[in-house]
Amino acid sequence: MVTHRRCESTNGRHAAGRVGYNEERPAGIGEGERVGEQAVRDVTVTGSPLAMGDHMIVVYRSEQQRWGILTPFLAAGLRLGQRTAVICPDTSIEAVRDSLAEDGIDVAATLESRQLQFMGPMELPVRAGAFEDETMTRYIRAQAEAAQMEGFNGLRVASETPWFVNQADMGKLLRFEARLTGELHQLPAIMMCLYDMRQLTPGIVTDLLGTHPLVVIGDHVVENELYVAQGGAADEYLPRLH
Fold first, then answer.
1. pTM summary value
2. Residue 44 domain-assigned (yes or no)
3. CA distance 227 to 207
């Protein structure tokens, strides 16, 4: 069982008192919102459904952990009528489609309706291997606004992030992650950022954890005390990023 101490923060989720001080709540994959009479199996945060504006990091060590959180996250978004986007290399698209199909999703129909979208090298605003955090932030905002205008119940994004960022641009990636939380609070969007610990240094993992209000490790989803301890403010955190 994961325990969590409530810490004061400007984050709306904390201010709402979703988690009581010293109170234990179930975390991981559970019942989210309902579609008709059926509860949708979704990622939950300390037992409560995800909310628009949520920004979480998944730190995984195995493919089993990766798919165990990624597939239900994507499938739930599709069942809830959200535009569901996957930022991943082209080589991962088939595996994502197969995983969703095994979960009962009509993948062909969701692609045809543009509810399910894949964002790869041709779609992302990353050119010649250069990553710009402000450009990427504007891109996510535009995608969220477009999803709402096209009649979807918001935007849900899963990002396999490191593949499109050069080592020299890791500082820009961290700035993007730090600013994104504030952006998402203003948008009809939920974003999950997935990182493979086997490909990152401990220092980078620590910095990445510090930029996300919610953290998923294994099958546990909790409010991130590292983020809260730093105040969750990009202006305070960014000077540490190089």
1. 0.78
2. no
3. 10
